[in-house]
């Protein structure tokens, strides 16, 4: 079994105690990403919708480092500070995940997130070609 670790080179690593992602064989587990701009190290302004967009961009950079893209994502978990933001988060989400085959998703409201963020998104991706079993 091959195991590789990935990390983004940005200065916001708030007390980093884990890898940004771990790749075991073909399965990539991406740690929860906040809507932090890697250049400034700060949460992007604009609330949950913009934070979700930035979190997904951050996930995209990790995917790219492993030779993947959003089509390789098979599962996401969305953590939000307020379930009322689900529609706004979904608006950002569908900019990154569209088409006939979408990843499975779970969404939860939580009491709080690091840095008082409104959204955190984690993902599981499969490296290489994915076959649609329903086809």
Describe the structure.
There is one protein chain. Helices cover 22% and strands 28% of the residues. α1 runs parallel beside α2. The chain has a six-stranded mixed β-sheet with strand order 1-2-3-6-4-5, with helices on one face. The chain has 135 residues and is α+β, with helices and mostly antiparallel strands. β2 (21-24) and β3 form a beta hairpin.
Beta-sheet strand percentage? 25-35%
Mean pLDDT: 87
| Sheet with most strands | 6 strands, mixed
What is the helix content? 10-25%
Structural class: alpha+beta
Task: Quote the distance from N terminus to C terminus.
Answer: 30 Å
Number of helical elements: 2
Shape: globular
Order of helices and strands: EEEHEHEE
Our Rg estimate from Cα atoms comes to 14 Å
- What's the count of strands? 6
Strands of the largest sheet, in order across it? 1-2-3-6-4-5
Unreliable spans? 9-13
Task: Summarize the model shown.
The protein is an alpha+beta fold and 135 residues long.
Topology:
Layout: E1 3-6, E2 21-24, E3 27-34, H1 47-65, E4 73-80, H2 86-96, E5 104-109, E6 119-126
Parallel strand pairs: 4-5
Antiparallel strand pairs: 1-2, 2-3, 3-6, 4-6
Helix pairs in contact: 1-2
List its traits.
135 residues; alpha+beta; single chain; globular
